[in-house]
Amino acid sequence: MPEKKISKEVKKKLEQILGNEFVKSEQADIWSYGFDNSRHHALADFVVLPESTEQISDIITLCKQYNLPLIARGKGTGTTGATVPTEGGIILSTERMNKIISMNPDDRYMIVQPGVTNEEVQLAAAEHGFFWPPDPTSSAFCTIGGNLAYNSAGPRAVKYGTPRENTLGLEAVTGNGKILRCGVYTTKGVVGYDLTRLLIGSEGTLAIITEATLKLTPLAESKNTIKAIYQSIDSATKAVASIMAQSTTPCSLEFMDKKALEMVREYSDAKLPENAGAMLMIEVDGKVEHLQQMTNDIKDAASNQGLLEFSIAQNKEEVKALWATRKALSPSLRHVAPKKINEDVVVPVSNIPALINGLEIISEKHQIPIINFGHAGNGNIHVNLLVQEKDKQAYDCLDEVFKLVLSLNGTLSGEHGVGIDKLEFISDELDATALSVMQSIKQVFDPDGILNPGKTIPSPK
């Protein structure tokens, strides 16, 4: 059957499922759905806007019938191209599935649809004295579906964990069009395999999440936000290891190297010593009567010969300014190098000094500026290669970065996922047996390979 006729048939059937206004096929209407924050772009054949699990099941069944790729998309804040329709097909936007279904403060959970933003969840939870720990930098815009697809966590993961530790259960639709319920409503449960944790981080390649039961955590009574300035990267990274080796766990522990601090000076009013080689942003939270002792514990661990300044933010404005500085870093780097390569590698905390020193050597060798910052408390460092073109030299440099990370017992992604940007490097981290098992799992969930093809793991073909 001619391709044009198939396209008309598919459009007609999609409109029967969703209604005419929720099926987009004109290039002007679908263009903005074809990219994410990786700056990759491709055009889908259709964009659909379902509002129910049943509609998604029908859409998947239709895609299976016509062998059409189907890519789930939230707000497009991902950085690895995971929602870019590289093989055409259908983009399934969750923007209409944006309801908080229920709030259960007594049992500390909330049930939401995937199109709800992280910020909306935080505001709703706060009304009852709770929060959901994952808080990516893009929390004001990113959706819960995207957070779960990437296992995106943010600064608070050092104490409170990632979406995998803070999601009790899911409803999802597999590549067969079957509706799946997995997980529990309790904080303990060990019946069957843990499909909830499997689906989280799978980037929509196994199933499309339609509902999530989020585990809520009580808001702390009080919090101190601390700025620690160090003379050198070595002294700052050694302080990180010391802080994480004692009993008071910070609720966030952020790191910025010297080049990142230079960016901060240029793009903010933050006052930093001229000889600052690195900075830690540290937060501790807990009961009011314990907070001073916890802060003292952190100060003792953070103090070494390279410590230049240890100061506590005195009011909300100072706290806001400090976090605004940290969150402005990534967009500021976009202005300097629009085609920068942004990686989110992770190494054991004790290996952070070796990672940062190794990155300096790689930067010098390839004459490519590398700026590092991120969630130092769990070894998750955002490594930014400031390149003007993603050419062979840039990828040779990136290859050395990844080899360094793996040599330090690290992993190539902490929360940005794999998408298409890291796909060619996955076999450097995973052995053939592990990849084969993952490909078999993909086959069970999505036997026709229609869900987000060409992402996350290499095809067995």
Distance between the termini: 26 Å
For the record, the CATH architecture of the largest domain stands as: 3-Layer(aba) Sandwich
Shape: globular
**How many β strands by DSSP?**
18
Strand content is: 15-25%
Q: How helical, in percent, are the residues?
A: 25-40%
Mean pLDDT: 94
- Helix tally equals 15
Helix-strand blueprint:
Elements: H1 3-18, E1 23-24, H2 27-30, E2 46-48, H3 53-66, E3 70-73, E4 90-93, E5 100-104, E6 109-112, H4 118-126, E7 130-131, H5 144-150, H6 157-160, E8 167-174, E9 179-183, H7 195-199, E10 207-215, E11 217-218, E12 222-230, H8 233-244, E13 252-257, H9 258-267, E14 278-286, H10 288-302, E15 307-312, H11 316-336, E16 341-346, H12 352-366, E17 370-375, E18 380-385, H13 392-407, H14 426-429, H15 432-445
Helix pairs in contact: 1-3, 8-10, 8-12, 9-11, 12-13
Give a quick precis of the structure:
The chain is an alpha+beta fold. 36% of the residues lie in helices and 21% in strands.
Please describe what this structure looks like.
The protein has 461 residues and is of the alpha+beta class. Helix content is 36%, strand content 21%. The protein has helices at 3-18, 27-30, 53-66, 118-126, 144-150, 157-160, 195-199, 233-244, 258-267, 288-302, 316-336, 352-366, 392-407, 426-429, 432-445, and strands at 23-24, 46-48, 70-73, 90-93, 100-104, 109-112, 130-131, 167-174, 179-183, 207-215, 217-218, 222-230, 252-257, 278-286, 307-312, 341-346, 370-375, 380-385. The chain has a seven-stranded antiparallel β-sheet, sandwiched between helices. A hairpin with a 4-residue loop joins strand 17 and strand 18. Helix 1 (3-18) runs antiparallel to helix 3. It starts with a helix and ends in a 16-residue tail after the last helix.
